[in-house]
Amino acid sequence: MSHDLVEPPKPLGREQSLALVASFPSWYHRIYLGDGVWTLGGRGFHEDVWGQFSKALPADLGGRSVIDVGSNAGYFSVETKRRGAGRVLGIEFIDMYLQQARRIREIWDVDVEYRQSDAHTLSGMQERFDLVVFAGILYHLKNPLQVLEDLGRICDDAILIETEAIPDDPRNGVVVRQGVPAVPEFKRKGMMAFIERDELNGDGSNWWVPDVECVMGMLRTAGFVHLSRPVFLQPTRLCMVASKRADSLLDLAAFG
Ligand SMILES: C[S@@+](CC[C@H](N)C(=O)[O-])C[C@H]1O[C@@H](n2cnc3c(N)ncnc32)[C@H](O)[C@@H]1O
Question: CA 112 to CA 134: how far, in whole Å?
């Protein structure tokens, strides 16, 4: 995690930690297990994302509730919990990642619930949350606006979003009817590219890549009308925070 020098409260010991890492065919999250053992080498991109999100988060989340969509091995779930969140629920549909998350939860001794669920099924959820973590997930969804609207209905405050995105480029655009009466015009922004197969990174689980205007428009449509500045952490990776409330717990101005 981002706290290289902090040992987890319930480490397994070096040999067992190494065995745990090796027991899974792969890891996506780099998480510290104690005794000098990490799930992955190098630095995880999620650590940079958390560093960016942290700019808007208060030092203490004061018991606020969090839903982490596409929680993977639980990096953001654990970090929000360690920052003082109350209820934390991670939603993930791949069993191997849930198994990883449950082992990490024991080692870090945090009270996080993980639920095997498809993000497209959130419309039936009755529970409400103060914050939504929505990192690395939008472009994996077949129906991202539907999921954002579902989240908008169950969220009382803010969303922290990170996604693959189309960078601004004068070559991008589409001729589409605009205005009243509508006539064909060249529209440069507010688009989302459809990925039918595995054209993006050879990964067939990618479906849509939006540009910044499209992300902002979808957030507003979902009710998150107060938007931070968009920040690109990599040339095609966009981070933002957005809230339904003018008096959000998050400091939107500090995000840039
Ligand atoms: C690129 S990883 C991002 C993980 C983490 N949120 C982060 O930003 O580091 C995407 C994660 O979302 C999960 N995921 C993708 N589509 C999902 C869906 N429809 N419902 C639930 N989880 C999903 C994947 O299994 C994977 O763990």
Answer: 17
Q: Read off the pLDDT of each residue in 161-176 and give the average, rounded to a whole number.
A: 96
Q: What's the CA-to-centroid distance between 249 and ligand 1, angstroms? A: 25
pLDDT, position 4: 53
What average pLDDT does the segment 137-162 reach?
98
Q: Whose CA is nearest to atom 24 of ligand 1?
A: 70
Task: Specify if 17 maps to a domain.
Answer: no
Q: Is the dihedral of CA 221, 224, 227, 230 positive or negative?
A: negative
**Residue 111 within a domain:** yes
Full domain range(s) for residue 83: 45-255
Q: What is the mean pLDDT of residues 89-109?
A: 98
Q: In this structure, are residues 197 and 131 in contact, taking their beta carbons and an 8 Å threshold?
A: no
The answer to the question of residue 13 being in a domain is no
Nearest CA to ligand 1 atom 9: 46
CATH of residue 94's domain is 3.40.50.150
Quote the ligand 1 centre to 84 CA distance (angstroms). Answer: 23
In one letter, which amino acid is 131? L
- Mean pLDDT across 231-235: 97
Would the pLDDT of 215 be above 90?
Answer: yes
Whole-number Cα distances in Å, 161 to 20, 164, 174, 196, 230: 30, 10, 26, 23, 10
Our answer on whether the CB atom of 120 is closer than 6 Å to any ligand 1 atom is: yes
Instruction: Name which of 98, 200, 187 is nearest 139 in CA terms.
Output: 200
- Whether 20 is in a domain gets the answer no
Q: What is the pLDDT of residues 33-71, one digit of tens each?
A: 999 999 999 999 999 999 999 999 999 999 999 999 999
The alpha carbon of 63 and the centre of ligand 1 are apart by a number of angstroms equal to: 25
What are the strands, taking DSSP E only, across 36-154?
A: 37-38, 66-69, 88-92, 113-116, 129-135
